[in-house]
Design goal:
The complex is a heterodimer of chains A (229) and B (86). With 229 residues, chain A is mainly alpha-helical. Helix content of chain A is 57%, strand content 2%. Among the domains of chain A are: 36 residues; 84 residues, no CATH class. Chain A has 8 helices and 2 strands. Chain B has 86 residues and is mostly helical. The chains are: A mainly alpha (229), B mainly alpha (86).
Amino acid sequence: MPAAGVVMIIAVVLIVLALVYYLVSTIVALQRITNALDDAITGVVGIIEKSAPVDEVVTSINTNLDAGVDLLEGLLVKKAGLSDAVGLVEGLYPGAAAEGFRNFPESKTTKAPRISEVYTKGTLTLARLGREAPIAAASPNGPALRNASYGSTAARILYPEVRQTRPGSMPRSPIIGTDSPVQYEPSESPGVRKRMPVAVGAPAEPSAETGGVVKSGLAFLRRLKSDDQ
Amino acid sequence: MTLEWIGDAILLLVVLPVVVYLLRGVLNAANSIVPSARQIAAAATAGSKDLDATALLLTTQDQVQKTIEVAADYGGSLDVILDDAN
């Protein structure tokens, strides 16, 4: 065989070897790709299956929430009036008045009363429930109805009258202890004293064993009757 | 004879390098796809796991419906108790 033929055979063999090596490597790589894509397809199918009911459920939730918003907005505007309603919302969520109510487009242009500068949230709730007068509607553009930092009258009048304005008129707290001027005995039945308390040094009531409970009970009924009248 | 040597030279110096070059390009491209495909598979698996909580949307749906019903009842009572502003 001539040398040129041998070289040609060697060249062809080299080419075939190169083809085999690279093609087999490519096949292996493509198999890896196929396996990875199978995993991806499995995951994507899971995503599709799990997200299938999301649209229906979210639509239902949004529908219910829309109904709730409509209900609460309508009730607030109906009971408080548009101006006070905007003021209340602005007081609870500063800046929310600019967005207005969804079902009341005119609320975007309504001037919100400065309710939050005058009253606290709790006071707003109490005032809204207890009074029908619009709060701060008298001077929405004027000064605050009271100084929110230092004024306390508006808050104090929410509490019982005597305790805030005339604390001196309240009865003194009883003095207790073994040295107290008035000695109390433990009662055998709740709400009924064994005998009326006696100040130290005062003469004791006669027949405490027989008539003490009856007398104290009568005195209690008498006081109860006078309170009712 | 000379033509055979020329053919051998072309096979060794032209055809073989060209074949190797082309096949190496195909192999490199295939190998570069493998990590991307694995990342896609990992992302799809993670996304599928993240959506496991979508079943809770049914509970949310029920809770929202009950909440709105309670709010509607409460609003109806308030509508009766409180006078209208106007």
